[in-house]
Write a structure and sequence with these properties.
The complex is a heterodimer. By secondary structure, chain A is mainly α. Chain A has one domain: MetI-like (MetI-like fold, Orthogonal Bundle), CATH 1.10.3720.10. In chain A, 77% of the residues lie in helices and 0% in strands. In chain A, helix 3 runs parallel beside helix 6, helix 3 runs parallel beside helix 10 and helix 9 runs antiparallel to helix 10. The longest helix of chain A has 37 residues. The relative contact order of chain A is 0.12. Helix content of chain B is 37%, strand content 24%. Chain B is of the alpha/beta class. Chain B folds into two domains: 187 residues, 3-Layer(aba) Sandwich (Rossmann fold); 66 residues, no CATH class. Chain B has ten helices and ten strands. In chain B, the strands form two sheets. A six-stranded mixed β-sheet of chain B has the order 6-7-8-3-9-10, sandwiched between helices. In chain B, strands 2-1-4-5 form a four-stranded antiparallel β-sheet. The chains are: A mainly alpha, B alpha/beta. Chains A and B meet through helix 7 and helix 8 of A and strand 6, helix 4 and helix 7 of B.
């Protein structure tokens, strides 16, 4: 049997270079919008004489950021550790629990309605309470908030990924006399990876929110949340904004790190396909 | 010795529920190519899964390769192909084909050699590092067939494997499958909706009727081997197609008109 004229040909070499070139071109419009946005901020604020406490000019914020770079960096590092700790603990426990629930389905039907309901609760409301549980000054209370806030979306998505396997895939594995462990290793877990990573990306954002808002309710003087709250109260608006800029950059880097890991872990995925 | 032996097999879904199969008696010998045909709901896919021990019968005796269906499954005595190719997106073509070999503990070098042979057999040389989504439907199904053949099982179970393909691809793969069957000497149980496909491929066609699912007739296909594209133009081919069609029609008034059309057109 011939492959036929419509058959897919093997991917030729040298496509990679073209792909990178096209990647750069694809980014140009976004870069222009970014530059325009920054320019509007800088000159708009000056031209319209916007009050400092509403929005300082971008250049003032960047200047403050540079002047107090060591203080801001150490506050940022402190808060980032809280977020990262919560992210690792919350997501780790959620993935482990999802594996258990996928293996023992009756357990899942007992627990999941509550997990789904809990997913809709604004967990951040608990921040003052976790301060009572783990101590106001301890980073543990912020880690706890970040962990709880990451936990539910990762749990719900991972379980969905582990269980949304086509029945024929399971029949195929059973025809090879595969046991439960083998079905998990070779079918359920790879099938769940796209679900897990999209949850983890959301969780990075949630962990940063959890850690910063957790800081707002009190804690170490050397944390981003405290810096933002304090400076906004003492008319040091440029400094508060500098902390916000750092928090934003950290959030983006955190998200990007998970997104890159996703790309590396799922090179097979159609979303990485070469046209 | 029969490769598959079914004695008074009965399957009921749910207690006192739908009777999917009733009084199934069937012996399939070595190197036979047996098609199960019938309208939707006649239990032909259920029967195939009972042979593969993917569904347990409510009562009756199932012997595969001289042992219980369960033992045959655990000994990996059969390969299975579904209507959907059921390839894993995270594995390349080569790794999809060698999945059962990995589970059998073959080393990498031996797997690689076997995959090369199989790719040649299904004429997909050069596609080993492609991913399933880079292939057409017909090519995916050929990968799935190569995977089922990888560990040389004596029995091949196929559940409407070409049902989702266009007519031209289907006819090409029919001839391809017969070539593989001839080369490997395995026994094939093939579920289909299409009368002409069943007649063209099989040594015997088993006609089934629904509600409750049972065997209503067996047609011996005495067309000469090997079958070629010209086989479909022989008068004997049309006679046999008509014979199977009459047996399907003879199922009586219980069959509604659409089911008849589906069974005849092989949709």
């Amino acid at each position: 049997m011939s492959a036929g004229p419509t058959a897919v040909q093997p991917v030729p070499r040298g496509v990679f270079a073209r792909r990178v070139g096209r990647g750069v071109r694809d980014w140009i419009p976004a870069a222009i919008v970014f530059a325009l946005g920054m320019a509007v901020w800088e000159f708009g604020v000056k031209a319209l004489d916007v009050q400092n406490f509403l929005l300082p000019p971008l250049s003032d914020i960047l200047e403050t950021l540079w002047d107090d770079r060591s203080g801001l960096t150490s506050a940022a590092w402190f808060t980032f550790k809280e977020a990262l700790g919560g992210f690792v603990i919350g997501s780790g426990v959620a993935i482990a629990l999802a594996l258990l629930l996928a293996r023992w389905r009756p357990l899942a039907s007992a627990i999941m309605p509550y997990a789904i309901a809990a997913n809709a609760i604004p967990i951040i409301a608990f921040a003052p309470i976790t301060n009572n549980w783990f101590g106001l000054l301890s980073p543990a209370s912020k880690i706890a908030i970040a962990a709880i806030i990451c936990f539910f979306p990762v749990l719900v998505n991972t379980l969905r990924g582990l269980t949304s396997v086509r029945p024929a895939s399971i029949e195929l594995m059973r025809s090879y006399a595969a046991g439960e462990v083998e079905i998990f290793r070779r079918v359920r877990i790879p099938n769940a990876l796209p679900f897990i990573f999209s949850a983890l990306k959301v969780a990075t954002v949630l962990a940063m929110i959890g850690a910063i808002v957790g800081d707002y309710f009190g804690g170490s003087q050397d944390s981003l949340g405290i810096v933002i709250r304090r400076d906004a109260g003492i008319f040091a608006f440029e400094h508060a904004w500098a902390a916000i800029v750092i928090a934003s950059m950290l959030g983006i880097l955190f998200y990007a790190a998970v997104a890159i890991t996703e790309r590396l872990a799922m090179r097979w995925h159609p979303s990485t396909r070469i046209e | 010795m029969s490769v598959v032996s079914l004695k008074d097999v009965h399957k009921e879904f749910g207690k006192g529920g739908v009777i999917a199969l009733q009084g199934i008696e069937l012996e399939i010998g070595e190197r036979e190519f047996v098609s199960l045909i019938g309208p939707s709901g006649c239990g032909k896919s259920t029967l195939l899964r009972i042979v593969g021990d993917l569904i347990q019968p409510t009562s009756g005796k199932v012997v595969v390769n001289g042992k219980s269906a369960r033992q045959a499954r655990e000994d990996r005595d059969y390969g299975i192909v579904f209507q959907d190719a059921v390839l894993f997106d995270w594995r390349t073509v080569a790794k999809n084909i060698s999945l059962p070999l990995e589970m059998l503990g073959w080393d990498r070098r031996r797997r690689g050699e076997r995959v090369k042979e199989l790719l040649r057999l299904v004429e997909l040389d050069g596609f080993e590092s492609h991913h399933p989504w880079q292939l057409s439907g017909g090519m995916q199904q050929r990968v799935s067939i190569a995977r089922a053949l990888s560990f040389s099982p004596p029995l091949l179970l196929m559940d409407e494997p070409f049902g989702a393909l266009d007519e031209m691809t289907r006819e090409r793969l029919n001839i391809e499958l017969l070539r593989i069957w001839d080369a490997l000497g395995s026994t094939i149980v093939f579920v289909t909706h299409s009368i002409s496909e069943a007649v063209f491929l099989s040594t015997r066609v088993v006609v089934m009727s629904p509600r409750p699912g049972q065997i209503t007739g067996v047609v011996d296909i005495d067309l000469p081997q090997p079958r070629t594209a010209e086989t479909r133009e022989q008068p004997r081919f049309f006679e046999l197609v008509a014979d199977v069609r009459h047996r399907l029609r003879g199922l009586g008034d219980e069959l509604d008109e659409t089911e008849l059309i589906v069974a005849e057109e092989g949709l």
